[in-house]
Write a sequence for this structure.
């Protein structure tokens, strides 16, 4: 039986001031497919994913995370979650209804503890997708989204209690305390994670590639195109996934990854990883040690859209 009403991560939506560069980045460098351009709003899909889109870009004066969207099993699950959230005192942005965004579906939006807009939906039209071929260095799908929080312990509790996410692993520093909580809603090690940061913001969004070779080729392509590499290539201990992090044209952090752990729910026990051990951040030792300078690169700007629903 499912432990969470959430089945999977669908997409994340961002607003950016340099809209044209962001669209060019996803389309011509990151390897996504443009699905629809509504004039100031562009939808991008990952070729290997059945989701209608993995990221939506909106033109705006200020940068913000517009939304993080999740899937639910069916309309009844959507309605039940909405009722449960209301009973727990969560104010909905809107009641469950037919969605007007690409792919349609049935869903609703609400604010999380820190004011990010969250959407949960079902019955979204399945996109015609395809198998990504060997050496094809483009994303298969959106892997996970990581959120910065000044109070990650409270965020962890909120996502566990309100959306049924489970803790997979924790990153801890002996002097600072817990730095990272990895949360799952299915067998994937994490669909979201909560990172300790100075303010609420998008820490990074991660896209999965076909395998190690495709991941390295994709990372190399970004390097040759002149995009700023923050960290990588390497391999984390928690989740056992590969990583290379880049800044996009608007200063958001985007990650290429592959081989994220799959969890056996009956046997998995969360671990606490010591970040003072360099093996925790990078098993290979190729990406360079995580330090305060790399961490600051992922703090991002303070989100200007908290408790304000996006216009689309």
């Amino acid at each position: 039986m499912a432990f969470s009403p959430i089945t999977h991560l669908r997409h994340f939506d961002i607003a950016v001031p340099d809209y044209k560069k962001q669209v060019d980045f996803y389309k011509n460098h990151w390897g996504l497919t443009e699905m629809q351009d509504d004039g100031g709003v562009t939808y991008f899909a990952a070729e290997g994913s059945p989701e209608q889109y993995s990221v939506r870009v909106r033109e705006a004066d200020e940068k913000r995370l517009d939304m993080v969207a999740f899937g639910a099993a069916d309309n009844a699950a959507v309605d039940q979650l909405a009722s449960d959230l209301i009973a727990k005192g969560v104010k909905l942005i809107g009641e469950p209804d037919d969605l007007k965004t690409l792919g349609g579906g049935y869903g609703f939006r609400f604010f999380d503890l820190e004011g990010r807009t969250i959407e949960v939906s079902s019955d979204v039209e399945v996109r015609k997708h395809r198998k990504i071929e060997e050496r094809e260095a483009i994303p298969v799908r959106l892997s996970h989204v990581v959120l910065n929080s000044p109070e990650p312990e409270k965020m962890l509790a909120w996502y566990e209690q309100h959306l049924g996410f489970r803790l997979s692993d924790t990153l801890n520093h002996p002097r600072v305390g817990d730095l990272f909580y990895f949360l799952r809603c299915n067998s994937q090690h994490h669909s979201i994670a909560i990172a300790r940061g100075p303010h609420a913001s998008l820490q990074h969004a991660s896209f999965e590639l076909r395998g190690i070779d495709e991941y390295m080729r994709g990372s190399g392509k970004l390097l040759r195109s002149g995009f700023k590499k923050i960290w990588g290539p390497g391999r984390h201990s928690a989740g056992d996934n590969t990583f290379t992090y880049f800044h996009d044209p608007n200063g958001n952090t985007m990650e290429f990854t592959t081989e994220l752990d799959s969890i056996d729910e009956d046997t998995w026990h969360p671990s606490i990883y010591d970040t003072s051990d360099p093996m925790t951040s990078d098993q290979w030792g190729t990406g360079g040690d995580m330090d305060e300078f790399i961490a600051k690169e992922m703090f991002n700007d303070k989100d200007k859209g908290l408790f304000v629903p996006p216009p689309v």
Summary: The domain at 141-297 is CATH 3.10.180.10 (2,3-Dihydroxybiphenyl 1,2-Dioxygenase; domain 1).
